[in-house]
Design a protein that fits this description.
The chain has 592 residues and is mostly helical. The chain is 62% helix and 5% strand. It is built from 24 helices and seven strands. The radius of gyration is 24 Å and the shape is globular. 43% of the residues are buried.
Length: 592
């Protein structure tokens, strides 16, 4: 019988031994050689028509290599313990490194062309790629020579990339002893992590102490990985002449420092509202103060809400369909095609993600579904990403689907709010309504406020390096707890083990992609304002959101905001998102 809780990757390849895999690898290698022969040394002299053909060839190549890269990544994420998937993942990583070196000339020559002929950006023949070329132009001054670019790719393969992989494999191959309702169990990370919002407080405490106590024992391993990744980035940033370690992220996210500084300042101004909620939740839980294991916990009197994957599917489909029947197309398709891996198991990557499949005009979702209300919301979130991917792939060429992270969370958070409205309307009691409001506030609080602490934490790491401070485990822990407490103040009491909380966040270890976190804050605050506009306009808003998602990366975040009537560049724009958060708190206070 078909297992509907694991994904079907046969649209890509049948399994790691599929004979089409080596064939595809050979085809990709051949395409890279052909591209190099055709374009090396010539791009700098192109006119608009010549550049157009080149960009179309780039898209054809990226589409081809995308299938094998996606498959190897998905197979590895689904089970990191299998020798076949490990070997394939390693092989494809080496292939990508080799081809990146081989084709490093392309981005360099494109940058030189645009620097010499910036008027090409506005050429009618290149209208489809206008904003993509604007983004390339912004990076021109940070490009290095071809040899330097190749050397960076080469040293990364067994340097920062290896440190990133170490953190991931170390975390997901650990076992944790947790006392669940009085019974001791040995669990994988995914299973233990699924207990963090458990209704039983003692179970939650055991899970938190076991996970973070265990990770803390391996703290110097995680510190070594993070220290080397950060130090490497400082060196690369200086060589590329970035004004700060954050500048590359700002360019990647198609935004600027002023907008992000205003965003973070607004969140810090609003931390009093978050603490107000946390203290209200402590009252609802009959506690003097929340423990860290209570922040995401259900209320003691909350009805036990457990869901099968089928029930979650029906809820999310209905929530998306109420917005617009056509808007639920991707949600239905993801289940019909079995593109979701929801089964918790040992060796599976922790967390959840959605990976786009451009050639399939679809996506793949990985999640460990344990039947909690949080899991249902996570599913709604990831299916928002799939919906975004669906609209983009059907309306844009491939180079216009590289959406910056600050935009990539739009449909996912919007999907969570659609589900929130549906479930609040269907709530069978005040207790259930309170439980739902707390979940929404818990998740929004983590995304907007706790993630802001992560940004401050990462900034502190780089200041520490600039000050020649050695980042051992305890020093990194100190930076984390200081940033964390800047948000939470006296509203939460923390276990000593929680100093290790930073060790399990994969975002800190992403090689050559620093400051992954603030885009989530941006998206949360943006989408809250976006959802307010939807509630005002109702059906008239639907085509605006569809246009935003369909645009992919062909427009800047500022332009995308204007499609739905929002001006992100206004000094007080972000306060609108805080008002929505405060309204949820007021709604909860009315139930007390």
């Amino acid at each position: 019988m078909t297992n509907k809780t694991t994904w079907d990757l046969t649209a890509l390849f049948t399994d790691p031994s599929d004979p089409k895999i080596p064939q595809t690898i050979n085809q990709v290698s051949g395409m890279a050689e052909e591209f190099e022969k055709k374009y090396r040394g010539k791009i700098c002299n192109f006119d608009a028509e010549g550049l157009l053909v080149c960009l179309q060839d780039v898209e054809a190549f990226q589409a081809k290599i995308g299938d094998i890269t996606l498959y190897s990544s998905l197979a590895f994420s689904a089970d990191m313990t299998q020798p076949q998937t490990q070997a394939l993942h390693d092989k494809v990583e080496k292939l990508n490194a080799k081809i990146s070196q081989q084709l490093a000339f392309y981005s360099l020559e494109l940058g030189k062309l645009l620097k010499a002929k910036p008027e090409l950006i506005e050429a009618p023949a290149l209208a489809n790629y206008r904003h993509m070329l604007q983004r390339v132009y912004r990076r021109v001054e940070h490009q290095l020579s071809e040899v330097e670019e190749q050397l960076i790719i080469e040293k990364d393969q067994f340097g920062v990339n290896a440190w990133e992989e170490l953190q991931c494999k170390w975390l997901n191959t650990r076992l944790f002893e947790v006392t669940v309702l009085g019974e001791k169990k040995t669990l994988s990370y995914c299973e233990a992590n699924g207990l963090l919002p458990h209704p039983d407080r003692s179970t939650r405490e055991s899970a938190y102490r076991s996970i973070y106590g265990g990770l803390g024992k391996d703290g110097e391993i995680f510190a070594s990985a993070l220290r080397n990744i950060c130090n490497d980035w400082v060196a690369v940033s200086k060589r590329r002449k970035y004004a700060s370690p954050m500048e590359s992220s700002l360019i990647s996210n198609d935004t600027d420092q002023n907008i992000i500084d205003r965003l973070l300042s607004t969140v810090e101004e609003g931390k009093a509202a978050y603490r107000r909620y946390l203290k209200l939740k402590a009252k609802l839980m009959a506690l003097d103060v929340l423990g860290n294991h209570d922040i995401l916990a259900p209320l003691p009197d909350a009805p036990e809400l457990k869901f099968t994957l089928t029930e979650a599917q029906k809820l999310v489909t209905e929530a998306y369909s109420r917005f617009d029947s056509a808007y639920a197309y991707a949600v239905k398709e993801m289940f019909e095609q079995r593109h979701i891996d929801a089964e918790p198991r040992f060796g599976k990557r922790n967390g959840a993600f959605c990976a786009s499949h451009y050639n399939g005009k679809s996506a793949y979702i990985l999640q460990s579904f344990n039947g909690t209300l949080t899991d249902v919301f996570t599913l709604a979130h990831e299916l928002g990403h799939a919906t975004h991917d669906c609209y983009m792939a059907r309306n844009q060429t491939l180079l216009n689907t590289h959406v910056p992270s600050i935009v990539a969370e739009t449909a996912s958070i919007f999907g969570e709010l659609l589900l929130t409205d549906l479930m609040l309307e269907n709530a069978k009691s005040d207790a259930e309504r309170k439980a739902l409001l707390c979940l929404v506030l818990d998740e929004a609080g983590m995304t907007a406020f706790q993630v802001t602490a992560r940004v401050w934490f990462e900034q502190a790491l780089y200041r520490s390096i600039e000050d020649c401070e050695f980042l051992d485990y305890k020093t990194i822990c100190c930076h984390w707890t200081k940033a964390r407490d800047r948000i939470y103040g006296d509203a939460v009491r923390w276990f000593p083990e929680m100093e290790a909380e930073w060790t399990m966040k994969p975002h800190y270890y992403m090689a050559n992609y620093r400051f992954y976190n603030y885009p989530y804050v941006y998206a949360q605050m943006f989408v809250y304002s976006l959802y307010e506009r939807y509630l005002e306009e109702k059906e008239a808003f639907v085509p605006k959101l569809v246009a935003l998602l369909s645009a992919g990366s062909s427009k800047s975040p500022l332009e995308l905001g204007r499609l739905v009537g929002l001006e992100v560049n206004e000094a007080d724009f972000w306060r609108g998102g805080l008002k929505v958060f405060e309204r949820f708190i007021s709604d909860l206070e009315k139930t007390v």
